[in-house]
Batch of 2 targets.
Target 1
Amino acid sequence: MKTRMIIAILSLGLFTAWPTTATPPYTAIIIDSGSPYFVPRSATVSSGSPIRWDNPTATEHTITHLGCFEDGNACAFDSGIVLPSGSFTLPGLAPGHYPYLCRIHPIMHGVITVTDTFVPSQL
Ligand SMILES: [Cu+2]
């Protein structure tokens, strides 16, 4: 009887621990100080799926959609300054092609392609 109760408590612990240990459903892009600067430089995600840029470098960067340099309405995302050890997460984008760059280092550029079809997150 006592053993059964212990098992019940243990399995309850497993269930409550599940959400925190689950793999986050986002596409991760790592900022790098050297070429290609964004890893992967070209990422394909499904619409509405979160995208997260991590900055492990010692420098500040931005993730700025090229549309932001045209007019306000064409700007899909602009992270502002992403500090060293910081990150920037986009909750999701509508289907389309989104070239972006770093405002501080315009040599750094990448592209996000958002599709209507399901794409497993690239972790
Ligand atoms: Cu930069």
Target 2
Amino acid sequence: MRGSSHRPTIVLAGGGHANLFSLRRAAELARRGFDVVLVDPSEHLHYSGMATGVVSGAHAPSENRIGIRRLVERGGGRFVGGRVAEVLYRERALVLEDGRVVPYDAVSFCLGSEACGGGDAVPVKPVANLEGVRNRLLSPGSGAARVLLVGGGAAGCEVAVNVARLMRDSGSGGEITVVEAGPDLLPTSPQRARRIMLERLRAGGVGVILGQKASLRPGAAVLEDGTRLEADLILAATGVAPPQVFARSGLATGDDGSLWVNRHLQNPNDERIFGGGDAVAYRGTRLPRFGVFAVHQGPVLYRNLQAVLRDEPLAPYEPQRRYLYILDLGDATGLAIYGPLTLRGRLPLRLKHKIDKSFVREYG
Ligand SMILES: Cc1cc2nc3c(=O)[nH]c(=O)nc-3n(C[C@H](O)[C@H](O)[C@H](O)COP(=O)(O)OP(=O)(O)OC[C@H]3O[C@@H](n4cnc5c(N)ncnc54)[C@H](O)[C@@H]3O)c2cc1C
């Protein structure tokens, strides 16, 4: 699948948040003498910041989709629909699940992560799944669904309050319960944020069970104390894991199989391999798995993909020490968390919508 020209090929493997910056500049890369190829099983990236708003109905499903195929093709690049299964880094080629081979001169991996499922649970990541959750809960046969959400971190809690709002607004009479293994919700957030979230869940009619690890079975979860909770729909938000393609290919990885990258976001096995987002271990360790990190890595990847092919100095990446994240509480308010600071109200949600909408518009 290599082009006939002698132009170096930059492959963007996965059109995730960290590769968007380069994708949007595909035309500029072409003008500078590079062929650009995007490999992704999907033609759209579902922007995670708006995904829970899609569940509640605050955003239309189309509003959080970024047309990554359109982005690369608009810039004169090529879209290859498929999933990377192996990296032949000595030959500088990617093998796709269906056996096709995509050669590269330089590659940036941005494959994201997936929530760990189990039984017949629906993982909340990839966030594209959440569109299906909304459709399922609104389908005529779903009735008063019993929903169980396992995992009380930021993603799990945000999904829970928005599912509760959907069920309330649709008048379905369904119920939702969150089960968290730890003693508290939002384990990495300030105490005040945890309290606000707990209050919000309870006010929204969401059942909360803390300190119980749930084992997932088809149609049910069994708690450590033996309680069996039957459910019509189980959502898994119990943490995310990177794809295992890097470890399988013999590339250096962090301990969970994410791609090991140095301060230039470059893998030590081959100077032409870069990566960003949830699927990398920055200098061997995990950064928080938030899209804001992936987005900040975008310009560094864009620059370094070109620099390595031109024998120019590489740019360093410096992770932000503090970052803002705003959870949509599903009641027209947001919960903003920045380091030790926490603010709840309408203003944080307005700010979130403004940031999210302008981000998606930038890639529209
Ligand atoms: C419910 C929820 C809400 C969230 N809200 C926020 C938020 O408000 N703010 C925030 O900062 N973070 C948020 N996050 C976290 C955020 O989703 C991730 O940190 C972010 O998506 C990581 O981006 P990424 O670029 O690594 O991968 P992704 O954006 O997940 O993209 C991965 C891409 O790789 C493709 N792909 C996967 N496997 C392969 C393969 N083998 N071959 C080729 N392509 C492949 C996928 O199709 C996809 O296009 C949220 C997460 C969840 C679950």
